[in-house]
Amino acid sequence: MSDRDIVWPAADFSRVPFAVYHDPAIYRREQERLFRGPTWNYLGLAAELAEPGDFLTTRLGETPILVTRAMDGRIHAFVNRCMHRGAQLRREPCGNAKSHICVYHQWSYGLDGSLRGVPFPKGVKGAGGLPADFDRGAIHLEELVVELHKGVIFGTFSRHAEPLADYLGPTVISELDRLFAKPIKILGYQRQRIAGNWKLYNDNVRDPNHGGLLHMFHATFGLYRLSQIGGAKMDARHRHNITYNQLGTDDAEAEGGYGDTDKVYQKGYRLQDMRMLQNRKEFPDPVTLVILSVFPNCVFQQIANSLCTRQIRTYGADEMELYWTYFGYQDDDPAMEDHRLRQSNLCGPGGYISMEDGEAVEIVHRTTLPERDGHARVEIGGKGPIADQPNLVSEVPIRGFYAYYCELMGFDVETVEGAAR
Ligand code: FES
Ligand SMILES: [Fe+2]
Fold this sequence. Notes:
single chain, Rieske Iron-sulfur Protein, Naphthalene 1,2-dioxygenase Alpha Subunit, Chain A, domain 1, seven-stranded antiparallel β-sheet, 9 helices, 21% helix, binds fe (ii) ion, metal-binding, 2Fe-2S
């Protein structure tokens, strides 16, 4: 199968062709149509760039990006590539600088991306150097359009993207307003390479069902069980998703659903140090877990008091990196900060919960590789129209992701609902 002959095998997106996880041509098309298309991509947090001159390096899809705070306080995002011969301009993860100087031939750029200096512009003793028509003012780092919401930095390559507020929609905005209601403090980072396609991770975070089945820690210690109050909310176009639950609300009858699962729910288990499981109430609502996924590259997390962003960075069709940025609030007392740092161990590459997600992505990726004509079956929670879910035994938000994905990718979609077997 190639990107040209793909026909999506179900009108309700209840099937996902395995080819989309492996085909290099599809991956290239994603870079062009999704990551360089009319999507808004998470680039970082304004709290990481508190002072003028602060910068960070990141990726948008596979394009290296440099995000800076200029002297006037404005945040800019550029392709992190020198306009001379294309060297990566900044190689550090973050820092503070008055200018950005390329290591190769020392061209220097201002914080606003303008080319400031070229060594030996007139050559030496009248020979060499720049040509007479060299127009320094016309050379500028390739700049993205940037918009912020509550200190979250989003960027897009497209001049035709809808305004960020419309792209996110009121459901996502109210969730970001909840999470970023107060000034934040960055607590640290984790990175995780996963040998699998980046969309398998998007599937994972739009899959409330796996949260109470794959993650023994969740189910056993009750941070998240399928028998608790919870559900999934999407934006009007179903491209973003919010999975949420309330710990301590287990329905005894529903709990019976764990009956013959394979040691997922170990009722008798206890931790010697139960502080890992504490939820210090800090939000006005009773929600104790939120996994907010914004198309196409980011996740915002609240698991009890562990708060972070997770950015999805692509490295080819078969590899991705998750970049975790942990934060608390500036008015946290030292005990709360300690608690958040302790609970940061729930996630990251060795996290009590998220360790399994990387493995799940990899075992799907590996096993579907030789089966490119096959497809995944996405029908838990029902087929047909895509709608918000009032419980956690659902994977419907995955279908929402692929509905928008197909629209941007220009794939034809089978007209008969559920036509694929
Ligand atoms: S490639 Fe950057 S100065 Fe030459
Ligand atoms: Fe998970």
